Amino acid sequence: MMLKGVFNANIYYMQIMDENGKIDANLFPKDLKDSTVVEMYKKMSMARQLDAKVLSLQRQGRAVTYAPLIGQEAEQIGSAFAMRPADFFVPNFRQHAVYMARGFPLDKFFMYWRGYEEGDSIPKEVNGLPVAVPVGTQMPHAAGIAYAQKYRKSGAVTIAYVGDGGTSEGDFYESLNFAGVFKLPLVTIIENNQWAISVPRSKQSAAQTLAQKAVAAGIKGIQVDGNDVIAVYKAVSDAIRESASGPTLIEALTYRMSMHTTADDPTKYRSDDEVNAWKAKDPLLRVRKYLESKKLWSDELEAKMLDENLKAIDAAVDKAEQFKPDPKSMFENVYSFMPDVLKEEEDEAIAANFWQG
Amino acid sequence: MMMNMVSAINSAMDLCMQENKDMVLLGEDIGKDGGVFRVTEGLLAKYGEDRVIDTPLAESSIVGAAIGMALAGLHPVPELQFAGFMYLSFSQLVNHAARYRTRTRSAMSLPIIIRTPVSGGVRTLEHHSESPEAFFAHPGGIIVVEPSTPYDAKGLFISASHMNDPVMFLEPTKLYRLFKQEVPDSMYEVPIGKASVLREGEDLTIITYGTMTSIVSDVVEKKKVSAQVIDLRTINPLDEKTILDGAKKTGKVIVVHEAPTSFGVGAEVSARIAEKAMFELDAPIMRVASPSFPYPFPAYEQYYLPNANRIGAAIDKMLSV
């Protein structure tokens, strides 16, 4: 007879830049130049402006239901900057900043949120998947892409995103398990923004951290301050560097400052006190403080940047709004060939001008 | 050489894996065990564990990972051990496999062959005898094929391997080893989307597929009736022309399948005939299929499945009109 401990696990939390823009010099990544931090800040600002623009378009009836990202810029930009060009990302439906940082054309971004599939056709060089709406279902795709990267010995890595709610889905567990068994080059980022529509993080899991879900899959796991762009950058860079030895799960603690989508009202289910407490941890503010302390940023630079960003955004909106849809494209992109039965349906619709009178 | 359906599909996969280094197989017990029906036997030894992948027991990620592999340029062939277990991957199939091409306006496509044994008649435990073809034909975006002979099985698989689409490849368990047939050793294609006329006849037309084809052929043979027998082979997209030609030729149509009657493939076939050939019919269309409830436990299946007596009675009734 015997009773003994057979396994122990420990989950670390990492923060490098605090809310006042003070950095931990020991943890600060050696390869990260201040000029890159400036670029990160610009992209984070652009993400916030883009977000505000779509929200405003949605309120004017010029965009469909939208999932705002405000509050989560650090976690998305930090991870996007850690990726190398050949690495591949697998988003859910709130990775607007990742798309933008990876060079996804802004007009296509607006086209997606205006409701056109043409905005979901991702150019090859962006190396990312289209938006995945059903929560968590993108995770096995990421495992499969990582399998192909390893099979081809490409050295590239897959970076997958999932929310705190998504960690309750079976596909989340299945993909970590699959990636663990085959030691795949997969980095999974949990955007723990504390809310899955109206259900708080505490109701998703009794686990103290979501990072510890790595333990059951036999893979590496770490928790980071998701509002600290430097910590996210370091955690993802480290995971990419170590991807030959298998996958990593990174839990980024952040906050969804706005609604889940434009279809819900967060004041119904959470308190102003909670929201205000997170305002103080704003991911942009601390980077600006850091850059100002190093004389790398100023009010003038800020005003100039905001103006340039807005111009680019407005030009992209104009381009997106000029798009003329062709309903034939619905019929002609179902299979690699046109079946007779579908052709007949298309011909009938075309002859009737798609019943548009 | 003479092959049963198991060896024909095995031969098809072997040739396709030789031809295409990006084809990989994945599923439960497909490696050392060669699959529970031995369809993948010998392929692990020949192609190695990177290409013949024994996965964790999780159907959603078997299909989901296959989708990722296809997006990254591989041509995966996931095996789902039994159709009754594939519903765990339903979301991946209908939300992603069916939609990837259309949601990206063909910027991305999914070359995947999803293999699974289907249908009953072999006295197995619950959930091992399902006929799910209508579920996957319904949303569109997924090609659904169901061979009924070793020759068609090999040729359809090879055709599927040359397509840039998700193809659901349904393998009737009962037909795996029911009979052997002369099958070429080399590559050949059987066209997807094309039904086959198994027998020409004048008095009535029987449209069927899968497990029912051999029973229908036997009944027609024994009764010495002049029947046009059509094996659909591809469920989606339907070969409407062969269906309508058959219906118009004899004016009398019976649709026979193993899946439950209501909302099944027979309903779709009948509706198309009713829409386009109703005035050329001499009698109402008949459906012979399983009753409209879930597949029973094995001791009851003999009362559930359409058999020779029931098909024979339907033929008699149709010919008496």
Task: Provide a quick synopsis of the model.
With 357 residues, chain A is an alpha/beta fold. Chain A is built from 13 helices and eight strands. Chain A folds into two domains: 13-19 and 31-325, Rossmann fold (3-Layer(aba) Sandwich), CATH 3.40.50; 327-357, no CATH class.
Please render the helix and strand layout as text.
The complex is a heterodimer of chains A (357) and B (321).
Chain A: E1 13-14, H1 34-59, H2 73-82, E2 88-90, H3 96-101, H4 106-113, H5 139-151, E3 158-163, H6 170-181, E4 186-192, E5 195-196, E6 199-200, H7 213-217, E7 220-225, H8 229-241, E8 248-253, H9 272-279, H10 283-293, H11 299-321, H12 328-331, H13 340-351
Parallel strand pairs in A: 1-7, 2-3, 3-4, 4-8, 7-8
Antiparallel strand pairs in A: 5-6
Helix pairs in contact in A: 1-2, 1-10, 1-11, 2-8, 4-11, 5-6
Chain B: E1 2-3, H1 5-19, E2 23-27, H2 43-47, E3 52-54, H3 59-71, E4 75-79, H4 90-97, H5 100-103, E5 112-118, H6 133-137, E6 143-145, H7 150-161, E7 166-172, E8 181-182, E9 196-199, E10 204-208, H8 212-223, E11 227-231, E12 234-236, H9 240-250, E13 253-260, H10 265-277, E14 286-290, H11 301-304, H12 308-320
Parallel strand pairs in B: 2-3, 2-4, 5-7, 6-7, 10-11, 10-13, 13-14
Antiparallel strand pairs in B: 1-8, 6-12, 9-11
Helix pairs in contact in B: 1-7, 3-4, 8-12, 9-10
CATH superfamily of the largest domain in chain A: Thiamin diphosphate (ThDP)-binding fold, Pyr/PP domains
Quickly name the level 1 CATH class of the largest domain in chain B: Alpha Beta
Q: CATH topology of the largest domain in chain A, what is it called? A: Rossmann fold
- Overall strand count of chain B: 14
Sheet with most strands: strand arrangement of chain A: 1-7-8-4-3-2
Describe the structure.
- The complex is a heterodimer of chains A (357) and B (321).
- Chain A has 357 residues and is an alpha/beta fold.
- In chain A, the strands form two sheets. A six-stranded parallel beta sheet of chain A has the order 1-7-8-4-3-2, with helices on both faces. A two-stranded antiparallel sheet of chain A has the order 5-6.
- With 321 residues, chain B is an alpha/beta fold.
- Chain B has two domains: 181 residues, Rossmann fold (3-Layer(aba) Sandwich); 125 residues, Rossmann fold (3-Layer(aba) Sandwich).
- Chain B has a five-stranded mixed beta sheet with strand order 9-11-10-13-14, sandwiched between helices. In chain B, strands 5-7-6-12 form a four-stranded mixed beta sheet.
- In chain B, helix 1 packs parallel to helix 7.
- Classes of the chains: A alpha/beta (357), B alpha/beta (321).
- Chains A and B meet through helix 5, helix 6 and helix 13 of A and helix 3, helix 4 and helix 5 of B.
